[in-house]
């Protein structure tokens, strides 16, 4: 007996399979009846009651195969009973190949399609006991098997018994093993299909997470762009309003700065909106260059309050576009916060290229400090996204962020991101 590892209930047959079973049963019935007549004509075997009994039993055996997948155990019981009846009542027809193949198919189908392991084992045991018990009983009946003269090393009758038992063991247990192998193959296919479905579901979840992460990133970029430029425009507009009558040239310069900032804001907004609309990667590559570490110098200003200075510390080295963009956004948000909330007179933006140690690891760092009030304004004017977004950007790249008041007064935002070995 094969290993009874049948902890999986095979799904029932489909409509197509059931329909095909009916077609097969009809075809087998026709072949079975025809083969009976051929055998009768060739060997003169009796057809039983009124010359039609054999056709009825062989026809019933063929038709019963229609339930081999929907009712596999019932079909096995019926086919076994018909086989024994034919062997007893129509002994001359027991060797017809069709009834042999029908019984084999019913055993195979039971082990391939049964969804009840205990019932399968019980029914199979009953069938085997009945078949081998009937065969053993038949050997005891006088004249049932011809007793030939002894011509070999083994007596003729014992040799006949050995051969009959061996061929039946191969027949029955071969059908069981084949059917169980078909069941295991079906289970493996189902497991593969389930695994594929789980992977598709996981991929869908990951895609959704990626979409959500991209939305957060875009929202952060939108906030950074709008906050930086609008706060700059607000400062310049306030200054222009104060000196409009007494220093019209200074006011004109402020208005020029406002115009330039508004154009930059619109251009960057177009880039971000384009990102939202673009689904083709080839089109996504055409959105134009993104700001990086070199563009941080553009955040400095000396003609407005607060005055924003810019410095670079260390020998510059290559930094990936994503890290450079994130550090630029950090500096942009921090400078915007200084202009909106800090009431500072001076601020400094420092870009550092840092060698972390002898193993050649490197980091890029942006630090923004001011001499203002030194309070965390994250939850006030920024709408709650500014400093949170800075921390998220640092964490996204495996970096570190230090945000808070300075002991000597003012506020500091520092983000360092590792960029690999040199």
CATH topology of the domain at 292-422: Heat Shock Protein 90
Strand order of the largest sheet: 1-2-3-5-4
Weakly predicted, low-confidence segments: 278-286, 377-384
The quaternary state of the protein chains shown equals single chain
Share of residues in helices: 55-70%
Gap between N and C termini, in Å? 65 Å
Give the H and E element order.
HHHHHHHHEHEEHEE
CATH superfamily membership of the domain at 292-422, which one? Answer: Histidine kinase-like ATPase, C-terminal domain
Rg computed from alpha carbons, rounded to a whole number of angstroms: 44 Å
Structural class: alpha+beta
Largest sheet: 5 strands, mixed
Question: Average pLDDT across residues?
Answer: 84
Shape: rod-shaped
How much strand content do the residues show? 5-15%
Number of helices: 10
Count the E strands.
5
CATH class of the domain at 292-422: Alpha Beta
CATH architecture of the domain at 292-422: 2-Layer Sandwich
Features:
422 residues, alpha+beta, Heat Shock Protein 90, rod-shaped
Task: Write a structural description.
The protein is α+β, with helices and mostly antiparallel strands and 422 residues long. Among the domains are: 15-144, no CATH class; 292-422, 2-Layer Sandwich (Heat Shock Protein 90). Helices cover 60% and strands 10% of the residues. The chain is rod-shaped. The two termini are 65 Å apart. Mean pLDDT is 84; it is low at 278-286 and 377-384.
């Amino acid at each position: 007996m094969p290993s009874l590892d049948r902890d999986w209930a095979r799904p029932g047959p489909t409509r197509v399979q059931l329909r095909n079973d009916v077609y097969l049963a009809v075809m087998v019935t026709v072949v079975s009846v025809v083969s009976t007549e051929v055998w009768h004509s060739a060997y003169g075997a009796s057809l039983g009651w009124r010359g039609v009994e054999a056709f009825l039993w062989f026809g019933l055996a063929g038709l019963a195969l229609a339930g081999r997948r929907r009712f596999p155990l019932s079909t096995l019981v019926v086919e076994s009973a018909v086989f024994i009846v034919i062997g007893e009542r129509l002994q001359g027809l027991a060797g017809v190949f069709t009834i042999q193949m029908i019984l084999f198919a019913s055993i195979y189908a039971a082990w391939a399609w049964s969804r009840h392991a205990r019932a399968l084992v019980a029914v199979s045991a009953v069938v085997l006991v009945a078949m081998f018990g009937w065969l053993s009983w038949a050997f005891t009946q006088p004249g049932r098997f011809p007793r030939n003269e002894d011509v070999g090393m083994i007596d003729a009758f014992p040799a006949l018994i050995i051969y009959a038992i061996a061929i039946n063991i191969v027949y029955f247990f071969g059908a069981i093993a084949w059917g169980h192998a078909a069941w295991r193959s079906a289970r493996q296919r189902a497991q593969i299909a389930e695994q594929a479905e789980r992977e598709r579901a996981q991929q869908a979840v990951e895609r959704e997470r990626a979409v959500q992460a991209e939305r957060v990133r875009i929202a952060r970029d939108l906030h950074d762009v709008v906050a930086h430029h609008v706060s700059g425009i607000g400062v310049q507009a306030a200054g222009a309003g104060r000196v409009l009558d007494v220093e019209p040239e200074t006011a004109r310069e402020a208005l020029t700065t406002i115009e330039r900032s508004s154009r930059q804001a619109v251009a960057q907004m177009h880039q971000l909106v384009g990102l939202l609309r673009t689904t083709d990667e080839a089109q996504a590559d055409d959105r134009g260059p993104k700001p990086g570490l070199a563009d941080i110098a553009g955040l400095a200003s000396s003609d407005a309050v607060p005055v924003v200075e810019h410095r670079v510390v260390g020998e510059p080295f290559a930094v990936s576009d994503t890290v450079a963009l994130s550090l630029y956004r950090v500096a942009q948000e921090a400078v915007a916060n200084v202009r909106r909330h800090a009431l500072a007179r001076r601020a400094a933006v420092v870009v550092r290229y840092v060698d972390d140690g002898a193993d050649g690891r490197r980091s890029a760092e942006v630090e923004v400090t001011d001499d203002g009030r030194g309070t965390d304004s994250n939850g006030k004017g920024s709408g709650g996204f500014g400093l949170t977004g800075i921390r998220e950007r640092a964490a996204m790249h495996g970096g570190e962020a230090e945000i808070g008041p300075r002991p000597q007064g003012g506020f500091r935002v520092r983000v360092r991101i590792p960029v690999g070995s040199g």
